[in-house]
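For the sake of transparency, this paper describes our internal protein records without simplification. An entry from our holdings is shown next, in its original layout:
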Amino acid sequence: MELDDFKHAWQGLDRRLERQEALQFGIFRDGKLDKARRGLRPLIWGQAIQLVIGLAFAVWSGLFWVDHRQVPHLLVCGLLVHACGLLFVISAARNLYLIQRVDYAAAVLEIQRRLADLRAWRLRVEAPANAVIACFIWIPVLWMSLAEHGLDLWTYDRAGFMRWSLSSSMVGLAMVVLTVWLMRRLGHARTLEDSAVGSSVRKAEAVLEEIARFERDC
């Protein structure tokens, strides 16, 4: 065989191997990205449920404070729960928007950036806000629920109830802060962050890291 023929044969073999590797990587990448997409579905369903709950709270509290707008303390309770319901709706909508922005046809690095935006929102904004709201929102919700059944705490021991409820909420908030501080001090900050972000995001991130690692090794 002539040297030129040998070179052409070798180059042809290289091109076939490159095409085969590209095809195999494409199949691998598509399968993994589909897995990442499926992994985010529980989060999508969870946010859809939160959206419905937020709307229900907003409607319920909206009707309540409109009916009790002549009673200042009940008006305030209704407005607080109404604001909470709207925050739930906004938070869910923000999560769904960030998920929708993930373009699985883009480069892996770009997809990772979009997931990083979702992680940052859930970790730095949503988780702290939900922790604070959960510690206090039960007070106006309880007040409204009792008022709808004809029991207005304002006519009873309102000072005693407010002291007890606010002190209970402050203790709950202090326990949350203490738990976060202890976990950070004990070196479990990553575990705490992953818990706040959620398993769906973590699984998608792990799949993308697997694709990125495969690309580096090729």
User: Anything to note?
Assistant: Residues 3-217 form one domain. The mean pLDDT is 85. The chain has one domain: 3-217.
